[in-house]
Design a protein that fits this description.
Layout: E1 4-8, H1 13-24, E2 28-33, H2 39-54, E3 58-62, H3 68-82, E4 89-92, H4 110-133, E5 142-147, H5 159-179, E6 185-191, H6 197-202, H7 206-216, H8 225-235, E7 246-250
Parallel strand pairs: 1-2, 1-4, 2-3, 4-5, 5-6, 6-7
Helix pairs in contact: 1-2, 1-8, 3-4, 4-5
């Protein structure tokens, strides 16, 4: 087993925090991000910190990780980096999709729906398939994705993303069920409402979401990317080898506290 992890969406938010956490724990980081405009500066800062933590043992690629062309191009490079040894972790942390309602002034289109479900859900399956067939996932490898309570609650503008999250959870269950015999486990981590750049893209009322969350969360605060990173790091430990096909809640009990 190599000491390398692959993070899709590794520059900001949960993916960026996880990259820093695992870099500090001695893992090499292979990260994909797709940043333009102001986000490029945030990505630049994350990459600089990860580079320092890993003493240069990291590789970042600013390209569309959800495209098949990217997978075909970079998986041979990933294999070269790890020396052909399996990755410890494949983390799907891509937060890019259409946020709009199914009806109303701007109802979601088929193209938007297909893109959102592919990028935030189905792409995890295609990465897992290709990595597994190349021997880059094996005994002790973890496959993880990030989900939210939008997987079972209806929210303003969240419909397309909700569908993508539910699809991803089903994909993760099936991956764990089929690859468990090879020692590969797959789980989803459900974070609570987290004040990240991605949240500001979901709703203009994100500040109200944050304040309401602080009131209803049993610990009286919102989730942080570092909370999620710590949970993922724990799930990489040998003691978590038997956790599979599950949703792990990292939200301070938020999902048990009633309606949003």
């Amino acid at each position: 087993m190599s000491k390398w992890v692959l993070i899709l969406g590794a520059s900001t938010g949960h993916g960026g925090a996880t990259a820093k956490k695992l870099a500090a724990e001695g893992y090499g980081i292979i990260g994909f991000h797709f940043d333009r405009g102001e986000a490029k500066q945030i990505a630049k800062e994350t990459i600089a910190e990860v580079t320092e933590l890993t003493k240069g043992r990291c590789h970042y690629y600013n390209t569309n990780a959800a495209s098949e062309e990217t997978m075909e191009k970079y998986i041979p490079e990933i294999k070269r980096i790890t020396g052909g040894e399996p990755l410890k972790l494949l983390l799907h942390s891509i937060a890019f999709g259409t946020t709009t309602n199914f009806f109303g002034e701007k109802p979601v289109t088929q193209r938007q729906m297909d893109m959102t479900v592919h990028v935030m859900g189905n792409s995890l399956l295609y990465w897992t398939q290709k990595l597994f067939f190349e021997g880059l996932l094996g005994e002790g490898s973890r496959v993880m994705g990030l989900t939210s309570e939008g997987n079972y609650l209806a929210m303003e503008g969240y419909g397309p993303v909700s569908v993508a999250k539910v699809a991803m959870e089903a994909i993760i269950r099936q991956i764990g069920w089929e690859l468990g015999q090879f020692g590969v486990t797959a789980n989803a981590v459900q974070a609570g409402i987290t004040p990240t750049r991605a949240l500001t893209k979901i709703t203009d009322n994100w500040e109200m979401w944050v304040e309401n969350t602080k009131k209803r969360n049993p610990i009286r605060r919102t989730t942080t990317p570092e909370d999620v990173a710590n949970t993922i790091a724990m799930l990489l430990q040998p003691g978590a080898d038997f956790i599979n096909c599950s949703i792990i809640y990292c939200d301070g009990g938020e999902h048990r506290s009633g309606a949003f």
